[in-house]
Design a protein that fits this description.
Oligomer: homodimer
CATH topology of chain A: Metallo-beta-lactamase, Chain A
Number of domains of chain A: 1
Strand content of chain A: 15-25%
Shape of chain A: globular
CATH class of chain A: Alpha Beta
Order of helices and strands of chain A: HEEEHHEHEHEEEEEHHEHEHEE
Radius of gyration of chain A: 20 Å
Distance between the termini of chain A: 38 Å
Helix content of chain A: 25-40%
Number of strands of chain A: 14
Largest sheet of chain A: 7 strands, mixed
CATH architecture of chain A: 4-Layer Sandwich
Chain lengths: ~325, ~325
Amino acid sequence: MKHLFFLLTLSIINYQFSVAQNAFKVIPLGVKGGLDESNLSAYLVAPAESDNYICLDAGTIRTGIEKAKSNKLFKTTSENFLKNNLKAYLISHAHLDHVSGLVLNSVDDTVKNIYALPFTIDYLQKHYFNWKSWPNLGSDGDSPALNKYRYKFLVPAAEAQIENTALSVKPFLLSHSNHYQSTAFLLRNNDNYMLYFGDTGADEVEKSDKMEQVWKTIAPLVKEKKLKAIFLEVSFPDETADEKLYGHLNPKWFYKEMETLAKLAGKDALKELNVIITHMKPTGNNEEMIKKQVSEQNKYRLNLIFAEQGVLYNF
Amino acid sequence: MKHLFFLLTLSIINYQFSVAQNAFKVIPLGVKGGLDESNLSAYLVAPAESDNYICLDAGTIRTGIEKAKSNKLFKTTSENFLKNNLKAYLISHAHLDHVSGLVLNSVDDTVKNIYALPFTIDYLQKHYFNWKSWPNLGSDGDSPALNKYRYKFLVPAAEAQIENTALSVKPFLLSHSNHYQSTAFLLRNNDNYMLYFGDTGADEVEKSDKMEQVWKTIAPLVKEKKLKAIFLEVSFPDETADEKLYGHLNPKWFYKEMETLAKLAGKDALKELNVIITHMKPTGNNEEMIKKQVSEQNKYRLNLIFAEQGVLYNF
């Protein structure tokens, strides 16, 4: 009896602990939507209990790691952190502001996997790791393929385990203007989830249902509080006309998409949901305007986060 | 008689002034040989009397302009400086660490020319401005070509005027390992010259005579003190074996090339010659080692300069 009571207590403690516990560590290596070479989209993510990170997109790597180092987030050198703690890249699409840091740091990197949908791997092979833009450090493509980075072809809506980490990923196709595709990554650590969107336009503007498909998949996770954070782009302020969005969101369309999610998950489910605003393009005072506009229109009471380079976030 | 004397005095003053006068202003926007996305090869050059700059290579643009701005080198905004004061790009080769900043900043830039040898323009078209890595802002290539950047095909050893500036350029082919080509640019402002090398290996290692051809051309200018500065790369320290140089120089080979120049121009002609060491790869403590080794072996008493990002140099 005493033994049973002990087990019961333990399981209650465990349950409470798992509810309160953070599931993911995130360190942005770059947060801006273009122009500033020192701070372009790249987000390190590890399970809360681990230092084995994946990197979601890879616009800026080295400058971001140096910033994290100066913020005392790790003890080893920046070079060792890149080599040993960054276990894999997940790339949403091959626009330069999402892959430049990966390519530039590849020669000094260690063997690792690049996970992406086939169209992204195709462009990485043909236009970056091709001996013309850069030596071919990939596992395929223009000969000789030096086979440091191993291309891992993801399949839309099929979960894949990310080697050397405790994370899994399920990718979704996105529309990024004019027949260009991008990717959303749903990450899983046990029964906890995080959703990262690469560049994307709103369904209504893109004449697509790609965002809605993602919302339908993750709505139950939002309801059950298993989705710990959403990373979604807001590249331009509301002053930018729809025909000048070029496959990106502004605050108005951001909230139009949130409305779709609210309808599927229930409005109250969005309250306090962590939403990291990514990819604000730093032209003029765009960033300030976007922050103001996104904050003012926050009728769902999302926990909006304007993440900074080299800072640790726990979700 | 008094009038003649005045004219004579004036012409002597003018002559002395022109001897002492600087011919070029240089602002490095980035100086490192890879890895650090915030500080990659890019050098602004203008005639001493002008604020109309060209940019030699374009690894990092925005972060470098911001740095120059914070050093109070100009009064306008960084965005206006890019748009209005940077008049043309000259690209030595299409490796990503020499073009990333150009591509990333192109959407917010104004109409301007890109001068390069045909192999570089071919790669820019096919692998960067191709609607896959980036929208096609070039004047040719994958349709639609948005025609913001006009490709200007240079011809080896033929001088071309750089539009919207008082500068002319004569390009030379270089060997950058394994059948890859690069370019040296000889800039002219009236009767003053400056020589910029893109990435290059030493002739002996590359089994080439490309460097020697450049030295033969510019030796008379060195003798006559018309060559105001040479920008030459030293990517690795002497500990790097020849077969690991991959088309780059270390201090030993740098001085082997200087020896060729000394033989052609006379050893004394090299004394006090401004030589800017470019493209040191910032792996480990490479940069310190390269500086030490280049300084220690300086038997020609070159005026060695380890240029910094965002600082003004007058030559």
